[in-house]
From TrEMBL, chain B:
It is a multi-pass membrane protein. Keywords: Cell membrane, Membrane, Protein transport, Translocation, Transmembrane, Transmembrane helix, Transport. It is found in: Cell membrane. Part of the Sec protein translocase complex. Interacts with the SecYEG preprotein conducting channel. SecDF uses the proton motive force (PMF) to complete protein translocation after the ATP-dependent function of SecA. Signal peptide: none annotated. The lineage of its organism: Bacteria, Bacillati, Actinomycetota, Actinomycetes, Micrococcales. GO terms for cellular component: plasma membrane. One of its GO terms (biological process) is protein targeting. The chain crosses the membrane at residues 28-48, 143-162, 169-189, 195-216, 254-273, 279-298. This is Protein-export membrane protein SecF. The gene is secF. Forms a complex with SecD. Part of the essential Sec protein translocation apparatus which comprises SecA, SecYEG and auxiliary proteins SecDF. Other proteins may also be involved. It comes from the Bacteria. Belongs to the SecD/SecF family. SecF subfamily. GO terms for molecular function: protein-transporting ATPase activity.
Length: 588, 372
């Protein structure tokens, strides 16, 4: 029931998604199957040193940023000094920013703020003073505004888009004249006080006021590491007492001021919030960029082209055919092995397939999951792992039947034990998936995601479908009476007589349709058929696994009987049946 | 045959038929050691045939083509380097990108000429470049870090779940065995190692441990309270567990291997080299080795390790002494009945799984039927 609701909910949401949003009824495919966009990035030549090392470093940062923005498997390679990024689908501007923006964050104190338009220098007298290097008392010292800097500030036009592109290469120890990133103000800033590398964690979210009420604005929350926290405390302590606008500090991203909040208090916990004109996407983008550090270089997009799938389309097609053949073989084998019970396997696998498909659709819509060919192979392999749960379960039921239980109690007892095994082994698989997902990058990460997904689906199917179905089936006549085609025929499973107490034994396979133990009870001793000569007849009835079995003696009942029988044959004396019954009693 | 298989399963369960897997463990250790050494040998002498994703390679871009189909490029590359499996991608509407393994300077020129010919463009329209690996050192580094963390965690989880570190140790040793042999066989076959292969190897990790956990769960169940009885030793109980899960192991392995062999067959014979072939070979070998090791290596190893525990060592000795005493008794005994009894008791060899009795109280009573 729960499962039906679950599946309905899953597909209803996908259907709703296709109707009112951009979900689709086919899963998104990764670069290798569908193609995508190839972006060639060239480092901007003027800034920084372009070496193999910086390129590798840049690839690393880009990969981390792309990975954390969803489960897309990007292909990132170097080509000389260029970086080639292959992304599935058509990347949005945000994604492009993700790969090309350096995202170097610096914190500078504000010295002056002005309107964005250039100001005609009113002071006609040109700076006559000699350019002596000023040694400021602290980074907020206004003495740093030399006439040259003032002139630069006056001339700066922040309404000109050319001045809003930003860039690297500002000297961290010198004052900086720059614009706000939206062109609404211009600033003179003091030297860098805190570097972006001191940020230990960045996240985006809704801003809250001091009272904890949501402001409805998207913000980026920063947490500094220890050194950063100390520096931040010193800065806010100093700025706190200064008059406006000097009590503000600017957050400078790639040379542009994205926000210049004023320090209203001394902040000692190393937490800061950047508010500005963020949308949900841009806040998430900035948090993502800050988290993985800045690129050592700024890149410009040299070309952006559609590329076709790296693997031929016949690969996916043949892969799916292979999967279908594999599934068919599994079905045939399980029908052969488990007869009608195999149908339960088939139905469970079917449910698992439907669930997997649904979840993949849902994920490719919500978090941009894309299926690559290794992912497809992983799902095909999952058939085996999922089927194993059923096999473990069925074998347990059979074991219990062999011990002479009725089907009903065999299903319950077998489930008790199989559940533990299934949980333990799936936990291992899930652990592997989680660890690889969080620690690895690129293709391994996509694979880990698929693995974790199929493991969870396996659990859902076993718990919510296979077991309830078995409980229902155990009540049907066909299974409970152990029809030879049911796969649960106690006679074929070699179930032996079970001791029913008071010197009587129950013969298996004779319970009624409701599955209650209305076992035919015969008087002991039963004439036990002699096994074939090659097999030593050691009573399975005595090997009741589980704690309910009582046996503190040396011999099993069957052994004792065998011994007694042999003794009877040898000596010609008969063993009294009641004696044997007594022995049985002792053994309970 | 199904009848026979079911009967066989029954016999294994009851212990009428029992394979002395734990008893002959030295044999399996020797096989395992030989296989691991051979795998190392292959790895050291032959090494991996690393693909373009790991080593980088050559890239050709043919621009101004009228037809962006992939086949001409594949044929052109095959002329120059027959073993090469190029990756051909169309870029934009009028260019084709061809990536191959790193070629020598001469080969690069030849391929360029061949490509120009195949797409009927001038040589100037074909640009060449070396490209770096998309699966760089850092990616491998991260994957290995993940692997180590996984192994440590899995060791911890198993130690907690089985409440015994020796079981976890045995499972991890079996895992290394699986991994090394799988990698060795892959290297011996000599197919190119691609990211798909590595993903296949990683899947083996999970699968091998998974398989071992299932078998160990049964071992633990069978050996519960083993010290409270003197009928069978720890090793015999464990051996019974392996035998009892044998049918499960066979069924599981067949079910898991069927889809993989379907991919392998189609991948290798119909598609030739490619992602599907690489991943399915890694999986096929790994799953087969994993199934083998969960039966023939993990449990024997576990028994060897556990028998070092003083309590179990002492218990084993006690059981064996008792048994020897019974046999001696039987030899002395003139009475057939008691001789039989003694021999039966002495000769059980761990068949049947008896647990010492415990009073169940009202749990021994039949359960009241719930009304329906």
């Amino acid at each position: 029931m729960t499962l039906a609701v679950l599946i309905l909910a899953l597909f209803a949401s996908i259907f709703a998604g296709t109707k009112w949003s951009d979900a689709s009824t086919t899963p998104g495919l990764a670069l290798d199957l569908e193609g995508g966009t190839q972006i060639i990035l060239t480092p901007v030549a003027t800034e920084g040193k372009v070496t193999d090392e910086t390129i590798t470093q840049a690839i690393n940062v880009i990969r981390q940023r792309v990975d954390s923005s969803g489960v897309t498997e990007a292909e990132i390679t170097s080509q000389g000094n260029n970086i080639v990024v292959g992304l599935p689908g058509t990347p949005s501007d945000e994604t492009l920013d993700l790969v090309r923006k350096s995202a170097q964050m610096r914190f500078r104190p504000v010295l002056t703020v002005g309107a964005p338009t250039p100001v005609e220098s009113t002071e006609t007298e040109t700076p006559a003073e000699p350019e002596t290097p000023v040694t400021p008392a602290n980074p907020s010292d206004l003495a740093q505004i030399t006439p040259a800097i003032q002139a630069e500030f006056d001339a700066l036009d922040c309404t000109d888009p050319a001045n809003l592109t930003g860039g690297l290469g500002d000297d961290p120890d010198a004052p900086l004249v720059t614009c706000a990133d939206d062109g609404t103000a211009k600033y003179i800033l003091g030297p860098v006080e805190i570097e972006g590398t001191e940020i230990s964690n960045a996240s985006s979210g809704m801003g809250t006021t001091a009272q904890g009420v949501s402001t409805g604005q998207w913000v980026v929350n920063l947490e500094f590491n220890k050194a950063g926290t100390e520096a931040f405390e010193v800065v806010t302590d100093r700025l706190f007492s200064l008059p406006a606008p000097q009590n503000a500090f600017a957050l400078v991203l790639d040379g542009l001021v994205i926000s210049a909040p004023s320090a209203n208090a001394v902040i000692t916990d190393g937490k800061a919030e950047i508010s500005g004109s963020f949308t949900r996407e841009s806040a998430a983008l900035l948090a993502n960029q800050l988290n993985f550090g800045s690129l050592p270089l700024t890149f410009e997009v040299q070309s952006e082209q559609q590329i076709s799938a790296t693997l031929g389309s016949e690969q996916l097609e043949k892969g799916l055919i292979a999967g279908a053949i594999g599934l068919l073989l599994v079905v045939i084998y399980s029908l052969f092995q488990y007869r009608a019970l195999g149908l339960v396997t088939v139905a469970s696998l079917g449910i698992a397939a439907v669930l997997t498909f649904g979840v993949i659709l849902l994920l490719s819509w919500t978090i941009g999951y894309r299926l690559s060919l290794p992912g497809v192979a992983g799902i095909i392999v999952a058939i085996g792992i999922t089927a194993d749960s059923f096999i473990v379960y069925f074998e347990r039921i059979r074991d219990e039947l062999r011990d002479g239980r009725t089907l009903n109690s065999a299903v319950e007892k077998g489930w008790d034990r199989a559940r533990r095994t299934i949980l333990a082994s799936d936990a291992v698989n899930f652990l592997a998936a989680v660890v690889l997902y969080f620690l690895a990058v690129g293709g391994v990460r996509g694979f880990a995601f698929t693995l974790g997904l199929t493991t969870l689906i396996d659990l859902i199917v076993v718990f919510m479908f296979t077991h309830p179905v078995m409980q229902l089936l155990a009540r049907t006549k066909f299974f409970a009476n152990g029809h030879p085609a049911s796969g649960l025929d106690p006679r074929r499973l070699g179930a032996t007589t079970r001791y029913a107490g008071r010197g009587r034994v129950a013969r298996p396979g004779t319970q009624d349709a409701s599955g209650t133990s209305d076992a035919a009870v015969t008087d002991a001793p039963v004439d036990e058929p002699f096994g074939s000569p090659t097999r030593e007849k050691v009573g399975a009835g005595a090997s009741l696994s589980g704690a309910t079995t009582g046996d503190s003696g040396r011999m099993t009942i069957a052994e004792r009987r065998a011994a007694a029988r042999r003794a009877a044959q040898d000596s010609g004396s008969t063993t009294d049946s009641s004696t044997e019954g007594d022995k049985n009693e002792e053994n309970r | 045959m199904a009848q026979g298989f079911a009967q066989w399963g029954n016999d294994l369960y009851t212990g009428r038929k029992s394979y002395q897997i734990v008893g002959h463990r030295r044999r399996f250790y020797i096989v395992a050691i030989v296989m691991v050494v051979l795998s190392f040998g292959v790895l050291l002498t032959k090494g991996f045939n690393l693909g373009i994703d790991f080593r980088g390679g050559s890239e050709f871009v043919v621009s101004n083509v009228s037809d962006t189909s992939q086949q001409p490029a594949i044929d052109a590359v095959a002329e120059v380097a027959p073993d090469e499996v190029p990756r051909v991608t169309s870029v934009g509407g009028s260019a084709v990108r061809v990536q191959t393994d790193r070629l020598t300077a001469d080969e690069v020129t030849e391929v360029r000429d061949a490509l120009a010919g195949a797409y009927s463009v001038t040589e100037d329209d074909v640009t060449t470049a070396f490209i770096g690996p998309s699966w760089g050192k850092d990616v491998s580094q991260k994957a290995i870090t993940g692997l180590i963390v996984f192994l440590v965690l899995v060791g911890l989880v198993m130690t907690i779940y089985f409440r015994n570190w020796r079981m976890a140790a045995a499972a991890l040793i079996a895992l290394f065995h699986d991994l090394i042999i799988t990698v060795g066989i892959y290297a011996a076959i000599g197919w190119e190692v691609t990211p798909a292969t590595v993903i296949g190897f990683l899947t083996i990790l999970g699968y091998s441990i998974y398989d071992t956990v299932v078998v160990f769960d049964k071992v633990r169940e069978n050996t519960r309270g083993v010290l409270d009885q003197t009928r069978s030793t720890y090793a015999e109980r464990a051996n019974l567990a392996v035998n009892q899960t044998l049918v499960r192991s066979i069924n599981t392995s067949v079910v898991a291997l069927l889809p993989v062999s379907a991919i392998l067959f189609i991948g290798a014979f119909l598609l030739g080299a490619g992602t599907l072939r690489d991943i399915s070979l890694a999986l096929f070998v790994g799953m087969a080795v994993g199934a083998y090791s969960s039966i023939f290596l993990a449990t024997p190893l576990e028994v060897s390790l556990r028998e070092r525990e003083p309590a179990i060592k002492e218990h084993t000795q006690k059981v064996l002494d008792k048994r020897a005493a019974l046999v001696a008794d039987a030899a002395r005994s003139t009475d057939d009945v008691s001789r039989d009894a003694a021999l039966a008791a002495a000769g059980v060899q761990g068949s049947g799984q008896l647990l010492p009795g415990a009073h169940q109280g009202n749990k021994a009573q039949p359960r009241r039927k719930r009304g329906h």
